[in-house]
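Margin note from the TA: students keep mixing up input and output lines. Inputs are the sequences; the output is the structure of the whole complex. Example:
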Amino acid sequence: MAQTNELKNDTKKPSYKSLLIENIKYRTLLTKKFQEKKPFVRKDIKKVTAIIPGTILNLYVKKNNRVKEGDKLLVLEAMKMRNDLASPIDGIIKDIYVKDGSKVTKGELLLEFK
Amino acid sequence: MGLKQKTADLKKRMREAVKGGGSKAIEKQKAIGKKTARERILEILDHKSFHEYDMFVKHAGTDFDMDKKYLPGDGVVTGTGSISGHPVCIYAQDFTVAGGSLGWAHAKKITKIMDHALKLKIPLIGINDSGGARIQEGVNALAGYGEIFYRNTRASGVIPQISVILGPCAGGAVYSPALTDFVFVVDGVSKMFITGPEVIKTVLGEEITMEELGGARVHSEITGNAHFYADSEEQCFDQIKQLISFIPWNNEKKAEPFPKKPPKTRQYNIDDIMPADPRQPYDVRDVIKSISDDSEFLEISELYASNIIIGFSRIAGQTVGLVANQPMVLAGVLDVDSSSKAARFIRYCDAFNIPLVTLVDLPGYLPGIDQEHAGVIRHGAKLLYAYSEATVPKITVIMRKAYGGGYIAMCSHHLRADFVGAWPTAEIAVMGPEGAANIIFRNEIKNAENPDDTRKQKIKEYKDKFANPYVAAAYGYIDAVIEPKETRNFILHALEVSSLKVEINPTKKHGIPPF
């Protein structure tokens, strides 16, 4: 695994950091892209997120509703298409974070199961 | 009408045409720091070399009262000229005429000059400054773009194609630059995107400025779509002139040789650049300058994936394409971006008969979930493909580390480098000593009374035995171990003896590179 941590007492310009590759620590600069990379997040099946940016048109479920896998949860309109979002599991709705007309970005949390 | 009157009439017509969109529109263009289409062409080309064609072409729009409008030259200036004596075809979209929008006749002028370039086998320079498709001309505007893209693809690898983005270049229009070899951008002037900030705001509710979305800096640093970044149009034009001096007119020619010049060794002394400790950084561009004529190096994609360096220099007057790991950035690792960046450049050099010089010093591939998920397998493979496919002279110098897959990928003998030299400081091994010792001596270390001491001792043993160029040299995987100060001579001689190299790849329609 690559690890980075600032070298202490290094006042020289440019400001080298250290990068660990195969147990060897290299002194080097880091790119903006490298520093801004997002950490990996494992997908949580109990969290339903927007697959595409768009607008919520219909909500078919309410908080505490019991739903079966494949039941319609909501309609997400995006790129002039109405996408039915179906429940990925059997379960009870813990909370809903959007309402009719909500604009959502890709990956935004829409609702959660208990 | 006699000749005199007819000449006067011609001059009047020409005066009308070169007015472009008129003084008001020109003022507006200037107010935001932009030059006009003709100014740009005249500044790029040699003095008095520009010859304009299709000045009197009329636009083809008939709907929405367009037939009543006069659009000088239909918003694009086309012609031929020269840059330091090298002939080129050139076109520049004129934003002052209907926002440089692309209609059928506008596209026809561009495709005509493109056809010329391909037929005459000379470079094509396209200056983009356009609001996009001329909506009033409907599907004919789309047809125009399609015809341009098709020609860009046909001309790819036959003639050099240069795109200069000096204004907006949005929607489908961006695909012409994307299909060309080199894209030039200017800070604050260039804007490229498929869907603009307004659409993004309407659809997603996200606010972003044009500059943040697709400005010069973004395309130079984040996307890699642009290869040359300049602070001003003047600087951009100088970069174009410099590039043209390094490349041949077409794929059947070699780049024009220049008079030989020695490197500026007082400034760039190869013996002083590199720290002996393989974990310490240095700027590999100093090594490049220490072996290049007059220490001149034209770097390409400087801001993008700066852990690998690519660009042109000359050795004994001959253009070479340089690919070098940059230990100063991310320790010089290969990753998704650096592999793609180098692979594309290698294919460019191969297409245009430019010998490749590869300088190696890398710890391997960048580990990480983001890298694996971003497809480092496919993107990393591009580098292997590009080097293996290339038939131009290939010369490799291993300076320090060449571990694992990185050793193979950086133009090793196995990918048919013609000459591989290694400095005495080279470490060619299956992996770094620390990693290797930990695996090979795992049990000994684990069972030792003092594991840390044993580990250190085993690492030292491994280093002494394998962290050198002589194991690889014993198998003939490197041709010569050379002193650093011999590097230029080594490359120069290799270039001389391979000047007649002809290698033919198996007959095929085309390969299937890991795009």
